[in-house]
Amino acid sequence: MTDLLLTNARLIDPQAGNVTTGAIGIAGGKISAIITDDSPLPEAGQTVDCNRKHLGPGLVDIGVKVCEPGERHKESFGSAGLAAAAGGVTTMVTRPDTDPAIDNPEALEFVIRRAREAAPVNVLPMAALTKGRMGREMTEIGFLLDAGAVAFTDCDHVVTDSKVFARALSYARSLGALVLAHPQDPGLSQGAAATSGKFASLRGLPAVSPMAERMGLDRDIAMIEMTGAKYHADQITAARALPPLERAKQNGFDITAGTSIHHLTLNALDVADYRTFFKIKPPLRDEDDRLAIAEAVQSGLIDVISSMHTPQDEESKRLPFEAAASGAVALETLLPAAMQLFHAGAVDLPTLWRAMSLNPATRLGLDCGRLAIGAPADLVLFDPHAPFVMDRTTLRSKSRNTPYDGARMQGKVIATYVSGTPVFQRS
Amino acid sequence: MTFTHRHLLGIEHLRAEEIVTLLDLADEYVTLNRGASKHGTALAGLTQINMFFENSTRTQASFELAGKRLGADVMNMAMQASSISKGETLIDTAMTLNAMHPDLLVVRHPHSGAVDLLAQKVNCAVLNAGDGRHEHPTQALLDGLTIRRAKGRLHRLNIAICGDIAHSRVARSNIILLGKMENRIRLIAPPTLMPSGIEEFGVEVYDDMAKGLQDVDVVMMLRLQRERMDGGFIPSEREYYHRFGLDAAKLAHAKPDAIVMHPGPMNRGVEIDGTLADDINRSVIQDQVEMGVAVRMAAMDLLARNLATVRGAA
């Protein structure tokens, strides 16, 4: 018996790479039927007419910062979960850069318990690669894996000691654990608030060359070659980092790469008169870089688009640019911002859904992220054309540091389903 | 009148004719300052607060004197010693001061953009007295006035700016101002002290003093900002002086009547030869200090007039 039938939808299938009109049946929290031809629809407990709006697998967002423990006033599992549901994100893969860091099984269990209590969407936690994210000693990778960590990362801290990094990578490889790293040369990027170039010089901001990212990636690729580790670069944002990434993939290394939605839709000039909501890490790049990264997403060289959701309260942002905290919230704006790439003709819908759903799921060994019979019924129904003006006061996150405030956007989520249950419905 | 700004945050926001308006008024104040009675009334009854989050002797004194000569009530706040060290944020400090109804706020801050941020939160006129590596507009204006008085014009001159350009807000404001006034600008510095993307500013870039100074009308030296450096921009001060310090031999490449400028305070024997700095035939460094007071009087006068217009309309 089908519990729920979603009919008359434009189905985005990231595996087949197409968009077709059809219906999806859901039973027991899983996709039980996909009908794209004239065959009769199954009997269902409930039927929803999707009015030819788009239906795709829910987004899987690698790299969400929920500020529990430590800074719950900035974001909790409850608020982040509501924001995710409203943004079509059905799986949040959380970062361990909390205070304290998630670097032991007990802390991880706390995160899992809090997520289960408070968040309406799936939450899969990542754990720190080194204790305290200090880059000195590896964490208990085995215990953390057993406790439910899906990947290991020190987030924006680069493990500078190559010996420590090599050991952690080797140890992780023996357990089949995925390591996420932030490719960046820490010496060059120290103290930087902007990408070097005319704009940063005009504004008098300390800046870093995008070459620092290339150098960081080059080192990491050498480490992968040495250790055979399973590696994901969290954010590739510079055109110069693309050729080494491509070579590493051609060489058959177990490497994937992500980028952030902000680097795909904004550039360094958006900082304008020191707008600190545009201060992110790595800093926004030139337009040439942005275009190259969007092209790399379309070609598949870059596998994953993340929100890099980073809540910061007003106090951490209402400061001079250099002193202000980095990061932007993006769970709710990931989908409409991605629609900018679609409407601009830069990236098509199936490719976007590969980058925001199928690829991250596959990389983490999850069975979601696809429209397939037996896959979890984690779905997002949305209208890619619906226009709106972004008003940050409407955001569900406790922190509202979005760079899109006041922006004209297109793409509204109509409903989000997790295991066939609606967790968000636009009234 | 062609000066309609509420604040003076940077040269970037000014048009060429506004710069001329300001310099013309400053010329009048030079005359006033050289007279027996130095009192004006343009700022009578107004309150001027100088907020310096970074040490300053000359700029603060210059602003204080400018305000007093025009009749303002001037208060100096050394912010390093005050609430900032107690954890109060810049914006809270600004709001607190704003509640005391100042009319002119003169601000220096070690972070680029901090003065812009503060200006958004107060309803008086804000003057940028230097923010990080961003801008120092009154310094560029006083340099402009000094050049105009020494050379008889402020356009179609060859002007070299030499030294620590990367860390210098003086250099940025001057590049913008001198560019707007249609001069040829040359920057001379070792590549480590040159900001990135500088070629796109419409300037010529040199790393050799002899070549860069060839036939220039004006030589602007910059202070080596040791306090802003996080190490290792130059091998040593003696090598820097040898290659980039201004002395008579290097100055010989410039035009015979080229003037020498320096925003102060000078590191004698690091970026400039002490004898040359004191040479009254070449150096206009003391004139720059004098022009500083006049330019600041003019800037505050113009802003106060605009403030009266804004408040009158409200």
User: Mean of the pLDDT scores of chain B?
Assistant: 93
- Strand content bin of chain B: 5-15%
| CA-based shape of chain B | globular
Low-confidence stretches of chain A: none
The assigned structural class of chain B equals alpha/beta
Describe the structure concisely for a colleague.
The complex is a heterodimer of chains A (427) and B (314). With 427 residues, chain A is an alpha/beta fold.
Describe the overall structure:
The complex is a heterodimer of chains A (427) and B (314). By secondary structure, chain A is of the alpha/beta class. Helices cover 30% and strands 24% of the residues of chain A. Chain A has 13 helices and 18 strands. In chain A, the strands form four sheets. In chain A, strands 1, 2, 3, 4, 5, 16, 17 and 18 form an eight-stranded mixed β-sheet that branches. In chain A, strands 9-10-13-14-15 form a five-stranded parallel β-sheet. Chain A has a three-stranded parallel β-sheet with strand order 6-7-8. In chain A, α1 packs across α2. The longest helix of chain A has 17 residues. Chain A starts with a strand and ends with a strand. In chain A, 61% of the residues are buried. The model of chain A has no long low-confidence stretch (mean pLDDT 97). With 314 residues, chain B is α/β, with parallel strands linked by helices. In chain B, the strands form two sheets. Chain B has a five-stranded parallel β-sheet with strand order 7-6-5-8-9. In chain B, strands 2-1-3-4 form a four-stranded parallel β-sheet. Chain B is globular. In chain B, α1 packs across α5 and α5 crosses α6. Helices cover 39% and strands 14% of the residues of chain B. The longest helix of chain B has 29 residues. At the A-B interface, α6 of A face α4 of B.
